Amino acid sequence: MKNSRSNIRWLTQLALLVAIMLVMSYTPLGYLPLGPLNCSLLSIPVAIGAMTMGPSAGAILGGVFGVTSFMNAVEGKSALGAALFAASPIGYFVTAVIGRILMGWLCALVFQAARKLLPGKEKTTCAIGGFAAPFLNTVFYMGFMVMLFYRTDYIQSLVAAKGATNPFMFIVLMVGVQGTLEWILGCVIGGAVTVPLRKFLKKSNA
Question: Which of 44, 47, 156, 191 has the largest count of CB atoms under 10 Å?
Fold first, then answer.
């Protein structure tokens, strides 16, 4: 009976975070256009779920993030996404969805490793987990994009416009302030929300 209640609680928490992400995806908090890339805070609920419910929840929530991004490309709401989708739908699915699934899964593993390395440092480990999600999101999205699309005409036009001389410089110039802002907000907000939430869930599960 206890396991059944735990499963129901887990599914309820997951469904709540999915609902929050879907609502966010239709607001500027979900996808705020800043140049070719969108600034997104959807990695924050992914991080919260990964830190409170584990790797499987992180992967599922990352997948939700990825699917909303993929649909934005299909619907033409993202110029970059639409161009990459037109070049290779499968390649963009890997970039937008598979990369985000890996991000959510690894975020949970990073958090768990941080807890082992820093026992009793709940605020610090939650901040690390909150930072890991947007950082890994950037790494996987840009990594897959360069790996799969760097030679396409659209990406080469961005490379020329930014004056990048190699793929690594292109990533740095593309991410810029937008990526740094996501990392900071993920660290601060994700960490701040997760600390009391984990305490509450621990008491309610006792």
Answer: 47
